[in-house]
Amino acid sequence: MSQVETQPxxxxxxxxxGPGEAPTWDxxxxxxxxxxxLNACPTYRELGVEMDSPRGRIYQMIQVERGRLPLAKSFVxxxxxxxxxxxxxxxxxxxxxxxxxxxxxxGQIEKYYRRPLLESALRKFFFxxxxxxxxxxxxxxxxxxFYQRSGLEALxxxxxKPFPGxxxxxxxxxxxxxxxxxxxxxxxxxxxxxxxRHCVAFFAGCIANLSFARLNxxxxxxxxxxxxxxxxxxxxxxxxxxxxxxxxxxxxxDLARRNLDAFLAEDFDAIITNAAGCGSVxxxxxxxxxxxxxxxxxxxxxxxxxxxxxxxFLAGIEFNREMGAIKARATYQDPCHLSHAQRIRTAPxxxxxxxxxxxxxxxxxxxxxxxxxxxxxxxxxxxxxxxxAGKMRRVDETGADLILTANPGCLLQLRAGVAGSKSxxxxxxHVVELLDEAYSLRSGxxx
Amino acid sequence: MKSFTRExxxxxxxxxxxxxxxxxxxxxxxxxxxxxxxxxxVLPTTTDHVVGIVKFAxxxxxxxxxxxxxxxxxxxxxxxxGGILIGFSRMKKILEIDLENQxxxxxxxxxxxxLSLAVSDQGYFYAPDPSSQKACTIGGNVxxxxxxxxxxxxxxxxxxxxxxxxxxxxxxxxxxxxxHWGRPGYDLTGLIVGSEGTLGIVTEITVRLMRKPEAVxxxxxxxxxxxxxxxxxxxxxxxxxxxxxxxxxxxxTLRAVEDATHAGYPKDSAAVLLIEVEGLLENVxxxxxxxxxxxxxxxxxxxxxxKSNEERELLWxxxxxxxxxxxxxxxxxxxxxxxxxxxRLPEMLEFIAGVAEKxxxxxxxxxxxxxxxxxxxxxxDARDEAQHQRVLKxxxxxxxxxAEMGGSITGEHGVGIEKNELMPLIFSPxxxxxxxxxxxxxxxxxxxxxxxxxxSGKMCGELRVQVSAGA
Lengths: 447, 471
Hints:
The structure holds 2 protein chains of 2 kinds.
Chain A: H1 25-28, H2 42-47, H3 54-65, H4 73-81, H5 87-91, H6 98-112, H7 117-130, H8 134-149, H9 152-160, H10 167-171, E1 189-190, E2 198-202, H11 208-211, H12 213-225, E3 228-231, H13 241-246, H14 249-264, E4 270-273, H15 276-283, H16 285-288, H17 297-304, E5 307-309, H18 310-316, E6 328-332, H19 336-339, H20 346-353, E7 358-361, H21 376-379, H22 381-398, E8 402-405, H23 408-419, E9 427-430, H24 431-446
Parallel strand pairs in A: 2-3, 2-4, 4-5, 6-7, 6-8, 8-9
Antiparallel strand pairs in A: 1-3
Helix pairs in contact in A: 3-6, 12-24, 14-17, 18-20, 22-23
Chain B: H1 3-12, E1 17-18, H2 21-24, E2 40-42, H3 47-60, E3 64-67, E4 84-87, E5 94-98, E6 103-106, H4 112-120, E7 124-125, H5 138-144, H6 151-154, E8 161-167, E9 173-177, H7 188-192, E10 201-208, E11 210-211, E12 215-223, H8 226-238, E13 245-250, H9 251-261, E14 271-279, H10 281-297, E15 302-305, H11 309-320, H12 322-329, E16 332-335, E17 338-339, H13 345-358, E18 362-368, E19 373-380, H14 385-404, H15 429-442
Helix pairs in contact in B: 1-3, 8-10, 9-11, 9-12, 13-14
């Protein structure tokens, strides 16, 4: 039998983890390898191998610490293939905080494993050069918008078609750039409709400002319809979720600190996001400051305790039920970072149940990831496509013509699923977009 | 790559063979322990694949072990003597659902709960419900003859398996049982179910599907004294009532469960009974009243009825996640599995309390009380070897007491490599000899799941558990 690969890429790290944040006994020892997580894990369900199960990934993390497994290619591949959807946390009876473990493992990989040159360059460009900087993002957004609207995109797609590989699949996942960008609205305050009952801050995201500008506007309108004065702080920026998922923790901390400054300047009733992926990391900012820069821990806690998903916030207040009827057969896909990471499952359903005319059919396996997972559908397109295919089969069973969810990434992925399916007329919407439509129908009706 | 690996790849394809040490490492455990790695893991998708692998293994004279999800607690799916591990994680098709005849034909890798989900809209379910049902496979359930909380009313796996397709160690494919009633001759289905992979490898299963009852009521009886709860168990059945499930948790366990699931278990109580009755609407109401009366006679402090389906599911989620919930409060624990006559529950609980005191251990208790199936949870810290040894001694004593009471050393977790040396506690040398003869007919070379189920005779009645710290 051949030996385990023994040559780690970084010569300074021969065995175990390097200095810094790493998976530790306090957290992984809760795993009793009972295997109850297996069937909850999208990659295990597809591949059927222990290495790509939550139990197996934790076991590999332990073996790396013990020096039985090098922090090298095999380990990195299996940790990379994890969607970080945290479905296993819902399944786990022992309360293992898997997300915390896999993110720490990725932090180690980022620090002590040298990725291939092209991959490394792409990561640098996307995570370091682009995401943290609003101006650069806007510029890239304008270029992309021109490309999409000038017909160049259609041309490229036609040109890519004959080529094998996944280029064409990945190309169709590019988010559509909307006009105008929501960045114009940063630094403004939107008054409540009627009596002001809450003063909230809106977290607008980074790419969402460009490609989900209409969703952001709808969210602000819905909040205003619910007695919220909505402040959109100017100096906010990317939440750092993608960085945390990628193990780029130092930069994630920089981004977190920028948001702490932007949102702690005033005392808001809540800090609201419409992106489950952002919300989950915003609520977990304190984890970033447990070991590093602990002087920020208190501020991070103060910030995180105020963060609320928009569905969570609305379902928690006496929300406005004055809605027009929307006659549709709808189904709801749970965003992983809402249902598993934030444990929010009833709030969106409660809101949808209040929409007159809407018939909600439960989606089987709605708790299983659609394959979006941040940039996963680009980085691991093949697995993402497999998950999406399974998801669309379940959607077909419901006979729904309206697919609802509560996270921009899931919206993109599900729209790609609908575009590639036979029933292309189906609409994919965020829960707040539907509420916005229902409110506008009502006011239209009374006017 | 060895020629051994190349041959397996030729049989099932490159994508379906694991042979690198960093992959095989992940198969040195199941729900029980870390032991020797397999020499290869093969992931077949068809019966023909399995036949090919088994014939190859016979030629090479290497052990063959089948594995479902690897959730078993007695080491049935690990390879203590190396060899080929056949993983059924990709052989998970539901081949046929025949609701008119209440049966389904499935591949062994189908997850227990997935089968129930597939037929739930039509009002059916698959009855055996081990606590691991959301992950464990029905193939594994067949090997272990698994039960669950609803065993009391529905019986165990063997009562729900109608027929099997089995690959024998020589590569022969046999079909046992029948989809419909009446097949003369030996009951080979009954023999294979529960044989823990030592007689053959199951590649297809025909199971019975049950119609969901019209009504289900779940009661939670709360006690200030454990003894009162155990008395109620015998009293309920003495009245001629058979609940669908009758579970007991002691105060220590339910506090852990409550912290984990917030199901509504009263944390200040000494014990609770979770009782479920089902059937026709009228009967269910009447039986619930009768049960409540019995509980109160035995000094139940409170008897609650789940008001909604959500509340019921929450109570059950608490119960089914109980073992894991213990993982939150103790770095390591050892779940025991024994059976006694339910009438002797009060006596047994006192005995366990005595054992806990003698070995200075914390022992939680969670029972399928209705059928006398005990799951004492022995808590320890695996980093403390002396404590680990005390746990093994304590567990051994509890097992011996079960046997002495006329019970068994396992109700549902199986024997595997954990308890095979304890088999003489409940079987005579002649009994065991008869079993060995059966095994030698099917598995003469002993290469199917070796070193499990039957005692090797090399050790003197020891439990074998290797607990690795933090895993």
